[in-house]
Amino acid sequence: MAAAPQAPGRGSVRKTRPLTVKTSLNNPYAICWSALEREHMHFILQTLEDRFKSLGLRKIEDKKKKRKQFLKKPSPDRCGTEVEKSEGPREKPPEGSEQGSGWTPVDVRKQLAIGINEVTRALERNGLLLVLVCRSAKPAILTSHLIQLSLSRAVPACQVPRLSERLAPVIGLKCVLALGFKKTTTAFDAEVRAIIPRVPSLHVPWLHGRPEDSGASLDTASSESRDREILDTSFEDLSKQKRKLVGSQQAVVLQPLKIKKLIPNPNKIRKPPKGKKTTSK
After folding, report:
1. Helices in the chain by DSSP H: which ranges?
2. Residue ranges of the Ribosomal protein eL8/eL30/eS12/Gadd45 domain (predicted)?
């Protein structure tokens, strides 16, 4: 006789978990930094390095404070009075012996925005004159958002190779991935004026380039003349004039958005549970 089918053991049947898929829109436009000429790169690095050395801007870190952080804290069970008796009264060191950690000329440090986060916040508040980004920042998405931000704020920006390699040891930092000069700067006024003409213009498909002073004035004058003409004309002529203005503008080419599907675990590789240990046969 055939044996009756046995019920599956406990825990042998597992419910299949639904596959999690995250959809995201891919940007069809390729946004990249404009190329900087080699002569301009050497000029920017040399001028900034000389200026930082002349100002003496440097970050000083107190090594004693770092050592205290790694020391073990005393357990709460021990009585604090016994520890104080064993140690005895502590003598305060003289004021001039220890040098606190921080930036040496604080006024000069406030005129700069150092780091990607600080440069991003300053650009959003529209408080920068110039933005320099290091080429060694990886992945590139860390600094790619600064292209649209700087162009929308009409701030000249460029990617400078070896920026962190040349300036970080002078300032006393490990790396300088982004550097911004604030509008309130007085210590770097001459350097910013010398660097801005050498910065290449950025290009973003949905934003116009950085307007010059003459071009901006011409645009405002033409817009004012058009507004006066529209106010003088009647309602029928106004609709015709609007059509002419729309036709005269440059056509914007729209590109389709691509949908991406991100699957975290496409092969469905399951990790063993933490409680059970894998036994080697």
Report:
1. 38-55, 63-70, 80-87, 106-109, 116-124, 141-152, 163-171, 189-195, 213-232, 235-248
2. 108-184
